[in-house]
Amino acid sequence: SVSREFHKLCPEVPIWVGGPEVSYEVEAFLQTHPQITGVMIGEGEKTFREVCAYYSNGGDLGKISGIAFQEKESAKEAAARVVFTPAREPMDMSSIPFCYDTMEDFSNRIIYYESSRGCPFSCSYCLSSIDKKLRFRNIELVKKELQFFIDQKVPQIKFVDRTFNCNHAHAMAIWKFIKENDNGVTNFHFEISADLINEEELALISDMRPGLIQLEIGVQSTNQATIEEIHRTMKLERLQEVVKKIQAGGNIHEHLDLIAGLPYEDYATFRKSFNEVYSWKPNQLQLGFLKVLKGSYMYDHQQEYEIIYHDQPPYEVLSTKWLGFSEVLRIKQVEEMLEVYYNSGQFEITMKLMEKLFDSAFDMFQELGTFYEEMGYTGMSHSRIRRCEILLEYLQSRTKPGEGENIGDVIAMIQEALTFDLYYRENCKSRPKWAPNPVEFKHMTHRYCENGKLSHIEPFHYRFPDKSERTIAELPKRLETPVWVLFHYDQRDPLDHQAKIEEKKL
Fold it and tell me: Is residue 458 a contact partner of residue 484, using CB atoms and an 8 Å limit?
């Protein structure tokens, strides 16, 4: 490690570490890392300041709370003993200094902000569940600091509060404040528990400017045995109801999270969890893998669950009693395809159509991921048009295009959907090879594209689903006469940044 090499060069310089990776099993860590002077255990703001003061002004290291350090009683001792000081009391959140007011350039920055610490829940994979002392920063102080960010027009503020809405009054006060002081630019990100949110909160956030806030909602699994084993408090029906209500407002970008590798979750039940959550059609579906963190319940029960995981951060699962390594790798394929073709938002129309060709969304991403692997496309950087070409290659290779469809018709429809998606996002500099020559409809371009590159018009032989149709009942029928779609790049959706579209007549 860096500390080991640094210690060789500068043995007289003390080295201190802190954070969740070293706050648990401290004695074993120090014994295997003799170059480390000590560990700051748990919350470090006050501890770090006092350790610095000790080296600046002198004093007694043993009187600093919340640390462990190596000490030799004599130079002759071969090994140092580990000294633990009393645990530090949880901090008053309002005493933490505001560190951003010395910054000057906030352009293109994401700022992380903490208004509460601790978590009321006991999810077995999470370290926040260990800290039951839930604390909140003074709300007037929070408002003052948020106003600073708003005045600076910071693009995005990410609240790192583990469950932002665990205290109704606290959440409402902050949401009301950012709504009343909206600068039209700054976006706020919150991690919430959807089944805790109440109707008053839903009414407030549904009336916000589109794009003002985005919500991250942890689902993790829909398998009841898994939910119970990880000690997660979740009412699935209420969660789904809340997600639908949030979506109905059309003004909030929502992320839903799943975790692969949890106890009692095998490949089949994870597929079911994925398909169930995907059917809710969130703006993003984050597929993560279990991290086995020191100090967590999951870490303590790794032998019982037969968990094998990476020795190095982020300590991601390799296999479990229920999920083999080969199945983890297969789900990794799904994760990559989900990121490329769904979470990117670059293939909205195409994905809605593609779903109708497969038994399930999970199967679609799994088959596509396997195709990438077989063709040697995995891990490579591909342009958007190349991603489109690979998708068409894959469809050409399938022998089962879908019920009542032949492969030629499917390819023609998907080609047009891909063209639509390309222009939905931007006025493409490179045109896909399957699209018609723009010279053939230059009269329409001259007629409707008066503001140059800020608009584009294109003919389509299908009426593709509207943005409000998150899932379609059936594939669109080919039209005898094409419809003309005008893309307005100066009028974009604030949630997904796609162009406004309207049909035009010949």
Answer: yes
Residues with Cβ < 8 Å from 240, sequence gap 6 or more? 280
Calpha distance 223→265 (Å, rounded): 7
Q: Which residue has the higher pLDDT, 154 or 399?
A: 154
Residue 418, judged by CB atoms within 10 A of its CB (0-12, 13-18, 19+), counts as: buried
> Cα separation of 182 and 153, whole Å?
10
Query: Which H or E run contains 437?
Result: none
pLDDT digits (tens, 9 = 90+) for 244-289: 999 999 999 999 999 999 999 999 999 999 999 999 999 999 999 9
Q: Are 125 and 259 in contact (CB under 8 A)?
A: yes
For residue 404, how far is the Cα from the chain centroid?
A: 37
CA distance 18 to 16: 7
Instruction: Look at the block and give the residue holding tokens 């190596």.
Output: 70
Q: Is 442 strand, coil or helix?
A: helix
Quote the CA–CA distance of 328 and 167 in Å, as a whole number. 37
Neighbours of 372 (CB within 10 A): 20
Least confident span in 77-91, 145-159, 236-250, 300-314: 77-91
CB 415 within 8 A of CB 433: no
Q: Cα–Cα distance between 372 and 386 in angstroms, integer?
A: 12
Residue in the structure block whose two tokens are 């399930």? 360
Tokens of 196: 């805790």
Cβ atoms of 395 and 407 closer than 8 Å: yes
Model pLDDT, residue 56: 94
Neighbours of 232 (CB within 10 A): 21
- C-alpha–C-alpha distance, residues 171 and 162, integer Å: 13
Mean pLDDT of the residues in the chain: 92
User: Using CA atoms, how far apart are residues 321 and 4, in angstroms rounded to an integer?
Assistant: 36
Give DSSP secondary structure letters for 310-375. -SSTT-BEEE-SSS-HHHHHHHHHHHHHHIIIIITSTTHHHHHHHGGGSS-HHHHHHHHHHHHHHH
Whether the per-residue pLDDT at 445 is higher than 70: the answer is yes
Chain length of the chain: 506
Per the DSSP assignment, residues forming a β-bridge with 287 are 258
One-letter amino acid identity for 494? P
Return the structure tokens found at 295. 């100090």
Q: How far apart are CA 161 and CA 455, in angstroms?
A: 41
At residue 279, the pLDDT reads 96
Report d(CA 200, CA 237) in Å as an integer: 19
In contact, 465 and 417? CB cutoff 8 Å? no
- 170 neighbors 136 (Cβ within 8 angstroms): yes
